[in-house]
Design goal:
The chain is 14% helix and 33% strand. It is built from four helices and 31 strands.
Length: 425
């Protein structure tokens, strides 16, 4: 029998330490027309549940498929009652994000805190979760994302799991990223921490600009790259961590050619890594639990011990302070699901559905539409170059890069002329 233990991590967010003032319930099966957020009369949509919540509240969501964009609320915990396999947020491809960051004008000393746990998130038109201070781009915010599935199966091509932008202090744990263009897009943020996650079939797990990352007990499989730098300036590109599994990755590290002409490679300060088949139960159907014979069982490191065993970075930010990470056995497993601890969620037949109204303010402006269109074209160009560059001759490379430049310039002129009727799509 595996004994269940818990790790008090020296490096996770203590966002919601105060007692919660109220519990608000959401259930798509409530079609009675009577809704007050109680367990007996829950709201039918997540939007209504969050609208009724105030700082310190918890919104608990029953199984179902909840269609439409939602906006997180400052210092409100958003939880599912039964896990991500049966609790789905579907953005319907309407807006750039399926889940928007909070947008609240807080006092100067109050910063947005966001917590989301237990959802499958799919079908954003570009990115599944927005991780930033939406009200003030450079200001501080904190995010904790747990036990979520970022699923690119549904929705347009070139979806991103989530961004992490300046000021966003972020921890992601026990989550799955699958079938995505990039799992993460990280720029100028306080060092994010990824603990016990599974990345499968993504173009890049970490697509970063002047950024460092800590990665502990994660597994990366069947993808193009793990650590991918971009941009023309030096800085960042340091990846710290331990006990990660990297298997069947085409190019683990992707360098960037700086404006100075120097080729900058990611710096990997990773300890005791593995390179083995994780033996998922059935990755093709999205079941990333481990088989009993998996080499990833008990192969991780207690995250609380990482900084003493492996001399973690001396600049580890002081805002990271204790969150419990449970595991069974002598050590944590590697990946999102702890063997023998994470329950197998039984199918609930046909899930109930609800459709939430989307505020007009959440819809894309013409400028956002053009930015989104250019972003998709940019990623398509990157993929085309990567797929053909390594085996091309010098002449073919010049032709490939010149063609990409010309196409990008053409797209910039076409999309940037929105005021004069340019197509924003």
């Amino acid at each position: 029998m595996r004994v269940i233990k818990a790790s008090l991590v020296l490096g996770t967010l203590a966002i919601f330490s105060a007692a919660h003032s109220a519990d608000i319930f959401v259930d798509a099966t409530n079609t009675s027309g009577v809704e007050d957020g109680s367990a007996d009369w829950p709201y039918a949509t997540i939007v209504d549940g969050l609208s009724a919540a105030v700082r310190g509240d918890t919104v608990t969501v029953a199984p179902g498929i909840y269609y439409g964009t939602i906006t997180l609320k400052d210092d409100v915990r958003l939880l599912s009652s039964s896990g991500p396999e049966v609790t789905v947020i579907d953005g319907e491809g309407v807006n750039i994000f399926a889940v928007f960051a909070p947008f609240e004008d807080n006092p100067p000393d109050i910063y947005p805190d966001s917590y989301i746990e237990g959802f499958k998130i799919r079908n954003g038109s570009s990115t599944l979760i927005q991780v930033t201070n939406r009200y003030s781009f450079w200001a501080r915010s904190t995010y904790e994302i747990r036990n979520c599935i970022f699923d690119g199966d549904d929705g347009p091509d070139f979806q991103l799991g989530h961004n992490i932008y300046p000021g966003a202090r972020t921890v992601v744990a026990n989550s799955v990223y699958r079938n995505l263009e990039n799992a993460t897009d990280i720029i100028w943020a306080p060092v994010p921490v990824f603990i016990n996650n599974t990345f499968d079939n993504v173009r890049a797990a970490f697509f970063v600009y002047q950024q460092s990352v800590i990665t502990i007990n994660n597994t990366f499989t069947d993808s193009y790259s793990v650590f991918h730098l971009w941009g023309g300036r030096s800085g960042g590109g340091y990846f710290y961590g331990a006990r990660n599994n990297i298997f069947n990755i085409e190019q683990v590290s992707v360098p960037v050619l700086l404006d100075s002409g120097v080729l900058l490679y990611p710096v990997l300060n990773l300890f005791d890594g593995l390179a083995t088949d994780p033996l998922f139960v059935d990755a093709s159907s999205g079941n990333y639990r481990l088989q009993g014979a998996s080499p990833l069982i008990d192969a991780g490191v207690d995250p609380a011990d990482y900084f003493t065993l492996y001399s973690g970075p001396s600049w580890m930010p002081g805002y990271l302070q204790g969150v419990v990470v449970p595991f069974a056995g002598d050590s944590p497993d590697i990946g999102a699901y702890e063997y023998g601890l994470t329950p197998v969620i039984e199918a609930i037949g046909e899930l109930a559905v609800s459709y939430q109204s989307v505020p007009v303010s959440d819809f894309k402006s013409p400028g956002e539409q053009r930015r989104h269109a250019l972003e998709r074209k940019f990623y398509a160009l990157l993929r085309s170059i990567e797929n053909n560059y390594s085996e091309a001759t010098d002449c073919e490379r010049i032709e490939l890069l010149s063609g990409a430049r010309d196409k990008l310039l053409n797209d910039i002129w076409a999309k940037g002329d929105g005021y004069y009727g340019g197509n924003p799509n």
